[in-house]
Amino acid sequence: MKVIVTGCTGLVGSALIRQCIANDDISHVFAISRKPLDEAVAKSPKITVILHDDFSTYSTQLLDKVRGAEGCLWAIGGRATQFPDIETYRKVQVDYTVAAANAFRETLAPLLAAGGQFRFVFCSGKFAEWDQSKPLHFMADTRRVKGLVEQQLCQVADADTAKRFVVYCARPSGILPPDAGLAARLSGKLYGAIDVDHLANALIRVLLEGYKDRIIENRSLLAL
User: Fold this and answer.
1) Among 81, 155, 179, 193, which lies 20 to 30 A Cα-Cα from 64?
2) What 8-state DSSP symbol labels residue 92?
């Protein structure tokens, strides 16, 4: 399978790139990134790096470069506190993600062989909340915005009457980097933290095989 990966230089995105290279079922990766990738990664014959500045728009030229992709692993985002203000967070998390989903649904999904589906796998977060008016007592902005992305992605998929474009929203809890120490791993057990490479492999498996549920909670990711 040929796949698109975004957020390629972040914690989750870089793990996705590593695990895609190692996975024999992934034949090629189109890495759409603002920044160049590590030279050792970029030299892999399985990787095509596409530098892209504005993730709110997808030109015909860019879409031509990813022609043949059968799915997308979307890892752009994070927590609201990592952004200068809530407006920027909404733009990056909601607008960019939905713009890509619409572009891929309209342009790439119809190119697949009969019966094929374009799978868009979004890395969301635990406790994402669809009800935008619900009072929340912790991480309110992050949970509402991630819930809004999930909701709008599902609307994009539902608008595809041919059912060629499908969406999965994965909700990991805390994510442990490869070099996490013993203390971080022990404390992580308290809230179901997941190793980033385990998460990457779980997302890739969903991309390759699909999943029974549209929303994939942390406990299910741990079991994949």
Assistant:
1) 155
2) I
